[in-house]
Design brief:
With about 300 residues, the protein is mostly beta strands. It has five helices and 17 strands.
């Protein structure tokens, strides 16, 4: 398994477990600068992180807690917030405390720089990478794409069907796939909707005459747009009392690929509670240059181009 993964992915690997419980193996890991993971259990008053190495004390000094902490471009909250979470690091030294107990000095910053140099610097637009959701804001989702290095996924790139907040799709800690959308001045932006299938791939799951569930995403004077899947919505006839965010049962009147339209009738309305599940992905490759959402015989063309 690659060591350049989102934090939390290595911690349960048997090799990682074996190493952090053995001084001899920790010494070998120091010499090879191998990236390891364990849980940060305390952030002391000087903002040094204490890491649980299975009975062996590990310390990440504040200035080694994250890239940018030394020059002040990153605030201490980036270190404090790691308590009770898996954290990646390389071993920098093994010493003894005054009582003779071993103390292992660690650096997360060096692990992140290694990840940047060996992995992230080689990423290109269109590359598909594993990611883990770290926090959600109204404007988008932040995801760890390797060793705690964070990239933003703007809300309009999460799915074709528009949502009001990323929490409708994701939960913190969810493992997903993402596409590298842009790289500018070292900042990486992610996209997601291109992995959730084309209009036709999603429409194939439904048939005219069926009654299925959906979520109302917008209400206009000519009807309500109802999401049938994250990358597919249909237009329903207006029904009194229907609001954005309602869960509904809808009858599928017709599916028209050449117009990229699905006509619906709302049968019933229910309260909707967010319960995001792992996304269903239609792309199994590790890179895409372009994504064509619209059907081939549709006059309207909807596509994404990933420029080198």
């Amino acid at each position: 398994m690659s060591e350049y993964l989102p934090e939390g992915k290595l911690i349960s690997e048997q090799e990682n477990i074996n190493i952090i419980h053995s001084l001899k193996l920790l010494e070998e890991a120091k010499n090879s600068e191998k990236i390891l993971e364990a849980k940060a259990i305390v952030c002391d008053s000087s903002h040094n992180l204490i890491v649980d190495l299975g009975g062996i004390k590990g310390i990440i000094p504040r200035e080694e807690g994250v890239i940018g902490i030394k020059d002040g471009s990153v605030r201490d909250i980036a270190v404090i917030s790691r308590v009770n979470r898996p954290i990646c690091f390389v071993v920098t030294d093994i010493t003894e405390a005054p009582n003779g107990e071993p103390v292992v000095m660690l650096s997360r910053e060096k692990a992140q720089r290694k990840c940047l140099d060996a992995y992230i610097s080689g990423l290109r637009c269109g590359d598909i990478v594993p990611a883990r959701i770290t926090h959600l804001e109204s404007f988008g989702a932040f995801a760890d794409i390797g060793c705690g290095i964070i990239a933003l996924m703007p809300i309009d790139t999460i799915s074709v069907s528009r949502i009001e907040h990323p929490r409708e799709r994701f939960t913190v800690g969810m493992d997903i796939k993402a596409v590298i959308k842009s790289i500018e001045n070292g900042r990486i932006s992610l996209s997601h909707k291109e992995l959730l299938g084309t209009w036709e791939e999603n429409a194939e799951k439904f048939c005219a005459g069926e009654t299925v569930s959906g979520i109302v995403r917008s209400v206009e004077n000519y009807g309500a747009f109802v999401e049938l899947s994250p990358n597919l919505a249909g237009l329903a006839e207006t029904k009194e009392g229907v609001c954005v965010g309602d869960q509904v049962s809808v009858y599928i009147k017709s599916i028209i690929p050449e117009k990229m339209k699905i006509k619906l009738i709302i049968i019933d309305v229910f309260d909707y509670k967010y319960n995001p599940t792992s996304p269903e992905y239609y792309c199994s490759s590790d890179h895409i240059d372009r994504f064509v959402y619209s059907p081939e015989n549709c006059k309207k063309r909807v596509e994404t181009l990933f420029k080198p």
